[in-house]
Amino acid sequence: MIKSELIQILAEENPHLFAKDVERMVNVVFDEIADALCNGDRVELRGFGAFSVRHRDARVGRNPRTGDTVEVEEKWAPFFKAGKEIRERINADYEPGSDAPTKKRAVRA
């Protein structure tokens, strides 16, 4: 799912709201999460998961095309850890032997 699909679904489920208002709300939520991560805070959405930032040390990498070694600078990277409820919902819809969860039932919070 991409952001525009999320906005469309939310707009359809809330016909009393204009699509532009739904888009603005989604953007505000994402912007607040990004701002919190930029400030070094952790964002936890109960039942869904937690966003945090992790430090990656400088290292020597390799260019996969040429094989040359490349110096990779230290950086901070966003990290997401799924919550227990979302993991259980995904595993409840997972059919052994398949590559991805199958939609056995309508998944709703």
What portion of residues belong to β-strands?
15-25%
- Which series of helices and strands comes N to C? HHEEEEEH
> Could you name the CATH homologous superfamily of the largest domain?
IHF-like DNA-binding proteins
Number of strands: 5
Question: How is the main sheet built?
Answer: 3 strands, antiparallel
| Spatial strand sequence of the major β-sheet | 1-2-5
Overall SS class:
alpha+beta
Helical stretch count? 3
* CATH topology name of the largest domain: HU Protein, Chain A
Rg calc: 19 Å
Provide the residue-averaged pLDDT. 91
Question: Which overall shape is indicated by the principal axes computed on the Cα atoms?
Answer: extended
CATH class of the largest domain: Few Secondary Structures
The residue fraction in helices comes out at 25-40%
Function: This protein is one of the two subunits of integration host factor, a specific DNA-binding protein that functions in genetic recombination as well as in transcriptional and translational control.
Protein name: Integration host factor subunit beta
Subunit structure: Heterodimer of an alpha and a beta chain.
Pfam families: Bac_DNA_binding (PF00216)
